[in-house]
Design brief:
This protein has helices at residues 3-34, 42-46, 50-59, 63-80, 83-96, 101-115, 122-142, 147-161, 169-184, 192-196, 202-208, 213-216, 220-230, 241-258, 264-274, 282-296, 303-319, 342-356, 359-378, 382-395, 397-400, 405-415, 422-441, 445-465, 469-475, 480-494, 499-512; strands spanning 321-324, 333-336. With 518 residues, it is mainly alpha-helical. Among the domains are: 3-47; 416-518. The chain has a two-stranded antiparallel ribbon with strand order 1-2.
């Protein structure tokens, strides 16, 4: 057969194959729109990846059989603890069934939890968690109305990255804070409204800023990678100040959208609804994804999302402010309460209890009220503490019977030293140090020394009770003198007029008071 006929046949067969693929893709898009699995214009704009479409064509009626076989094989591998092989099979399953939210959840969970614990290198663990988050976000494109995906995304941020159960937790949080601080331009969160108004593509940016096309064209990916790594533009550039400012803002917007997977418009809504958050912390991202699930599917299926939002606000209120030991994000830090969030945190936890109508949820709300009263009082917000003590008395009169606010607070502090979480300990000890500083400033030296001694006893008792190698690695509590110095330096920077008198008294007190046994 002549060679040109073979070439012609190959071209014809290719065209026929492409025609079949396009026809199948049109049918898939139609089903997606009819079932409202995506926004109306999404499927038309994006479609499925070519590899997915081709697999659907070639597998045909055997597609479901292959899916069943993959699930059976994955279940067997999980029982055998072969998580790497299982992840590969789950990836194949998602290529065949990109709309399978359960498979995405299954894959993300195993990457974030089962695979990470097999890795000794903390940075390798962190990359697996990042891959899990990206898997869930990709699945959201095909399943934007599935609450499972938003719940899992929020849960990984809140539990895996934000909690203290993983020995690598301090490393995760330090790296997250370091990267986000660089991207945000040295702040704990950008102006989300300003970013939401920015173009979300290079072409739209060029239309708005045509003079920057010559500098950026052909370098778009390079500029984004550089900004992600450094948070800045190339040192050598010919841009004026106005152009630098516009390009910096746009690159920040693009990196936040692509790498942090955050939509600035929704982040702006989150802060309008709940208050200013510290976006260096995982709990802010948990609140973001949980609230997105609530907005997209506002029904009983999103109770888990509501709980994550309430828990995230609770944690941000209890310990949403950070002091780093060296002034820069690292693994040694002190977490302090953010009392700007106290009202909204109480509101959302009460809302969760009302939704569940369960005794357990109301018990959680009542215990949180107790924590709020205690922390407000210890930090010197006595009027606000009295306000919430009144609410607590109305809700649980047996807890406050015949007690003043002060008696209630001191009894709680004595009872829970050994069962405190790390963030609760740091918050309580910091409040004692803070009050001692103001007592020194007001001439109440005896009261101040008593508070500092109480803080040292509390702090070192806690360290002694959590003294195993694993706990020391996980909690990373510095000696009391170092902890006190960090808190003191922060307060004296904020109130410089106190410095000359108070600093001398603190130094004298440190020499007088014997160090409590570690």
């Amino acid at each position: 057969m002549p060679k040109y006929i073979l070439i012609l046949l190959a071209v014809v067969m290719t065209c026929i194959s492409l025609g079949i693929v396009w026809k199948i893709q049109d049918y898939q898009d139609q089903v997606i729109i009819e079932k409202k699995l995506l926004p109306e214009d999404f499927a038309k704009q994006h479609g499925a990846p070519p590899g997915v479409a081709l697999s659907n064509v070639f597998l045909g009626p055997f597609r479901n059989l292959m899916v069943s076989a993959l699930w059976l094989r994955m279940d067997r591998l999980q029982k055998q603890g072969k998580f790497f092989e299982m992840v590969q099979l789950a990836d194949w399953l998602l290529r065949v069934q990109p709309e399978n939210a359960t498979a995405a959840q299954y894959l993300a969970w195993n990457m974030a939890y089962n695979i990470t614990v097999t890795q000794q290198n903390y940075d390798v663990r962190r990359r697996w968690i990042k891959k899990a988050l990206e898997t869930l976000q990709t699945a959201m494109k095909y399943n934007p109305n599935d609450p499972i995906l938003y719940r899992e995304m929020a849960w990984i941020y809140q539990h895996k990255l934000g909690d203290e159960l993983d020995n690598a937790g301090p490393y995760y949080r330090a790296k997250m804070a370091e990267e986000n601080l660089r991207i945000f331009g040295g702040t704990h969160g950008p102006d989300w409204k300003q970013l939401a108004a920015e173009p979300d593509s290079w072409e739209a940016f060029y239309e708005k800023n045509p003079t920057l096309r010559r500098f950026c064209s052909g370098r778009e990916e390079e500029l984004e990678k550089m900004f992600l790594a450094t948070g800045a533009l190339p040192e050598k550039n010919v841009l004026n100040e106005s152009e630098k400012e516009k390009l910096t803002l746009f690159l920040r917007n693009m990196v936040i959208r692509k790498d942090l997977m955050i939509d600035p418009a929704h982040a702006a809504w989150v802060e309008a609804e709940y208050g200013k958050l510290n976006w260096l912390l995982p709990d802010a991202f948990a609140i973001y994804w949980g609230s997105m699930g609530l907005k997209k599917i506002p029904d009983e299926r999103t109770l888990h999302c509501q709980r994550i939002v309430a828990q995230g606000l609770k944690m941000m209120m209890l310990s949403g402010r950070i002091i780093y030991a060296d002034g820069e994000p690292g693994q040694n830090y002190i977490r302090l309460p953010d009392f700007n969030l106290v009202d909204v945190a109480c509101r959302e936890i009460k809302k969760m209890a009302d939704l569940m109508q369960g005794g357990l949820e109301y018990s959680g709300y009542h215990y949180f009220l107790m924590d709020v009263v205690e922390m407000l009082y210890l930090y010197g917000y006595k009027e606000k503490a009295a306000e919430y003590y009144k609410i607590l008395t109305e809700e649980v009169p047996t807890e406050t019977k015949d007690k003043t606010v002060q008696e209630f607070v001191m009894a709680r502090v004595r009872d829970k030293i050994k069962t405190m979480r790390n963030d609760q300990l740091q918050g309580t000890v910091s409040s004692f140090i803070l009050q001692s500083i103001f007592a020194f400033a007001n001439g109440a030296d005896d009261d101040a020394q008593e508070m500092l001694q109480g803080a040292e006893v509390l702090y070192n008792t806690y360290r002694k009770a959590h003294n195993s190698d694993e706990e020391r690695e996980r909690l990373r509590l510095p000696p009391f003198k170092e902890f006190k110095r960090n808190v003191t330096d922060l307060v004296l920077k904020r109130f410089p007029d106190l410095s000359p008198t108070v600093k001398a008294k603190l130094d004298l007190q440190e020499n007088k008071v014997p160090t409590v046994e570690k």
